[in-house]
Automatic annotation (TrEMBL):
It comes from Nocardia jinanensis. This is Methyltransferase. InterPro entries: Methyltransf_25, SAM-dependent_MTases_sf. GO terms for biological process: methylation. Coiled coil: none annotated. Keywords: Methyltransferase, Transferase.
Amino acid sequence: MDQQFWDDMYSGSAQRFSGLPNDALVTEVTGMTPGQALDLGCGEGADAYWLAEHGWRVTAVDISQVALDRAAAGHPEIAWQRADITVTPLPARSFDLVSAHYFPIAHESDHATLRGLLETVAPGGTLLFVTHDPTEFPPREENSHDFDPYDFYQPSEIVALLGDEWTVEVEDRRDRNRPAAGHQIKDLVLRARRAG
Ligand SMILES: C[S@@+](CC[C@H](N)C(=O)[O-])C[C@H]1O[C@@H](n2cnc3c(N)ncnc32)[C@H](O)[C@@H]1O
């Protein structure tokens, strides 16, 4: 799933997603003291907008220029950045909140991309990582996209890779208020905090 894949997906419609912030973001971040936030795979920007509107200084990163052009039409105070995080390192220990919703990170034997993502969280900062529950997807041979969610890191695998300086605050499976692509697929929510 390279830039072309994602640009094609976004180009396929004038608006791909709802324009509303994700439920897990609102639930988990409401009440936190705002600081520097990284929205990884920001797409059309709804989560980044919500964070900025709630006092966070936001860097929003996506591989898709089409998505970023759409997102950057609002909230000029957000630092919009096009990058493929599998090849472009992000600044280490810089963000009080790193939020990744439905962000696909393919398994790697050295976990390099995932470790790079974890490294962006500042001391005392929070990682919020949310995926669709993979048990609710049809098997690869039965879906139209040749897509297998088990090719990508799931929250439980991330928990297994967190070192001693991390505390898992939330590891949950829950409903979303809005169905994903017409289906009520549950969210898997991981919120973890790095020691200060
Ligand atoms: C399923 S969408 C989710 C978008 C948004 N977070 C949301 O919840 O609506 C995944 C996003 O990750 C971006 N993405 C995928 N691989 C990426 C990579 N290697 N580096 C940066 N962004 C990537 C895609 O362009 C896409 O916008």
